[in-house]
């Protein structure tokens, strides 16, 4: 269907599901075990309702914000996700170009399917991109990677700490492995996708992407070690408790991402929105000491705004951007960002908020029943 018919994030997801090779969709969509955390990540937002303020002269509503001091048109970034080329030959470059056109920020995965240099070369003038780091268990390999991306002009290190080992993702494991397998089953494989074929092979070692990660990271050792190598800001991605948020601040992290990896790692890990709420209740001082971001299950402008009301500086989306670029390339990324911008603006205006600074905890309430 034409792009203009896509009026919500879920529409794009639905289209991607129709057109993606089955294995690619299974890899993108999959989550741990019974996929409960993944589903609940999204449902968690529906327990938060708004208490809008009225009569606030909102015609000049400003949706811009910053992440680590870098400007963004909306408080939304592209979260680093592996293998964008499984969905489209241009893969990560679609994300970079789409981010540039809409003025949002992109985090590039360690397991990107193009080289870090190729992605950096796709940047527009003065475009900021960040790097998501899986720390290799060998320090020298990790060090080389950090130096490489700093040299290439990536502006921050998002250290992922919630994926030490490969998890059980049954949707992915069950999906037919080789392109011939799903061609034999009458499933469509995109014709231009010589690139895809190679990538599907990479998934032959599905867990292989996470195989070399350092399982012995600690606050005391690892953060100072990265600091000794790079001047870039360090953000820890995958914080899932109030206690660890406190330790991240004590370790001097420039930011934290509340994330359970889109429900892909530990099944029954609590939805990040609930962790955000706990930090707001128990340790609101955290929000003054470091930037807090959140990802997982965000599909609506209202989801974004709820997280900002509770103290998040910005939110990340993983699957939605993968689906957008899979189905429509760069134009899909632009369109997705515009859908979110429209929804965020409407929500802020309706709340009486003229800027992201005016998104405050009093504007949301958590209910203890689960809506529809
Ligand atoms: C991811 N994610 C991820 N995270 C990370 O730190 N490094 C990575 O390489 C990947 N790879 C990856 C691949 C795929 C296919 C998905 C769907 C996700 C997690 C990602 O950054 C983010 O935390 C979640 O995707 C957020 O949840 P939603 O937006 O997908 O619901």
From TrEMBL:
From which organism does this entry originate?
Coniophora puteana (strain RWD-64-598)
Kindly list the places in or outside the cell where this protein is found, as annotated in its UniProt entry: Mitochondrion intermembrane space
Tell me the protein's name: L-lactate dehydrogenase (cytochrome)
**Where is this protein chiefly located?**
mitochondrion
MF terms in GO: heme binding; L-lactate dehydrogenase (cytochrome) activity; metal ion binding
Q: Where is the FMN hydroxy acid dehydrogenase domain?
A: 1-369
Q: Does the keyword Iron apply?
A: yes
Q: Which UniProt keywords apply?
A: Flavoprotein, FMN, Heme, Iron, Metal-binding, Mitochondrion, Oxidoreductase, Transit peptide, Transport
Q: Which cofactor does it need?
A: FMN; heme b
Looking at the keywords, is Phosphoprotein present?
Answer: no
Q: What reaction(s) does this enzyme catalyze?
A: (S)-lactate + 2 Fe(III)-[cytochrome c] = 2 Fe(II)-[cytochrome c] + pyruvate + 2 H(+)
Task: Report the portion of the entire protein shown.
Answer: 109 to 480 of 484
Q: What EC number is given for this enzyme?
A: 1.1.2.3
Question: Which GO biological-process labels does this protein carry?
Answer: lactate metabolic process
User: Record's family?
Assistant: Belongs to the cytochrome b5 family.
Q: Subunit info? A: Homotetramer.
GO cellular-component term (any): mitochondrial intermembrane space
